[in-house]
Write a structure and sequence with these properties.
- This protein has 261 residues and is an all-alpha fold.
- The protein has a single domain, classed as ADP-ribosylation/Crystallin J1 (ADP-ribosylglycohydrolase fold, Orthogonal Bundle).
- The longest helix has 18 residues.
- The relative contact order is 0.19.
């Protein structure tokens, strides 16, 4: 999950000003954590403390109302209702990485990914997006090779991961749907050599940069191990005490160390 938050942080400054360039300063004062990180932390706490997903997503929205949520999520989170709104946006996929880290069987990962998505994103594409990311994180944790991960995600979810970033990048634009952004984020991971390379790939698509770097970064951390130390430190510096506590507890429970940097 640390890799997801770091990806969100790096990609945040490009959301309104997308770039097709891979050669950019990784962290600047304009970088911040967004709703991607806030809601990932909400799911992490729900898993650790057995808090219903819908309740905690609403609670985190109230605690961090200016994190940059999508319009439909804001209406749902601010309302007194908890019925899902049939979304296929990539919000279900951006927040799901804790599921891939916390659960230890394919069946449990897929079930919890669906449940975490369905409280808001109960459209089949919204659920598929969450399940594909959670499963990719889980398989990377198991040290599955990239080709095996690619093949399983393609066969199970029908995503085309055989395209290249070189072919995708020129015509790609901002897309917040699961079906239009999750496969591309996974390709950013598949083509990378390490964590930093993954995040640069994701941002350089010129799309929903924070979310795609969050998704790609989540899988990359599980595959490659620790993220660069300076980026890890920057993440902790950008979290408040409440957020740091959740992240440290989660890392301790899933990776055996509260601070990997």
């Amino acid at each position: 999950m640390l890799g997801a938050i770091a990806g969100d942080l790096v990609g945040s400054r490009f959301e309104a000003r997308p770039t097709k360039n891979r050669d950019f300063e990784l962290v600047t004062p304009q970088c911040r954590i967004t709703d991607d990180s806030v809601l990932s932390l909400a799911l992490a706490q729900s898993l650790m403390d057995d808090i219903p997903y819908a309740d905690n997503l609403k609670a985190f929205f109230r605690r961090y109302p200016r994190a940059g949520y999508g319009g439909s999520f804001m209406l749902w989170a601010a309302s007194g209702e908890s019925e899902p709104y049939y979304s296929f946006g990539n919000g279900s996929a951006m927040r799901v990485s804790p599921v891939g880290w916390y659960l230890n069987s394919e069946e449990d990962v897929l079930r919890e990914a669906e449940q975490s998505a369905a409280v808001t994103h109960n459209h089949p594409e919204g659920i598929k997006g969450a399940q594909s990311v959670a499963l990719a994180v889980f398989r990377a944790r198991q040290a599955r090779g990239k080709e095996a991960i690619k093949q399983e995600i393609e066969e199970r979810f029908g995503y085309d991961l055989s395209r290249s970033l070189r072919d995708i990048r020129p015509g790609y634009s901002f897309d917040v749907t699961c079906q239009g952004s999750v496969p591309e984020a996974l390709i950013a991971f598949l083509e990378a050599q390490d964590y930093e390379d993954t995040v640069r790939n994701a941002v350089s698509l010129g799309g929903d940069s924070d979310t795609q770097a969050c998704i790609a970064g989540a899988v990359a951390e599980a595959s490659y191990g620790n993220i660069p130390a300076f980026l890890c430190e920057t993440v902790f510096q950008n979290l408040d005490a409440f957020q740091r506590n959740i992240l440290e507890r989660f890392l301790q429970q899933t990776q055996g160390k509260a601070r990997p940097c």
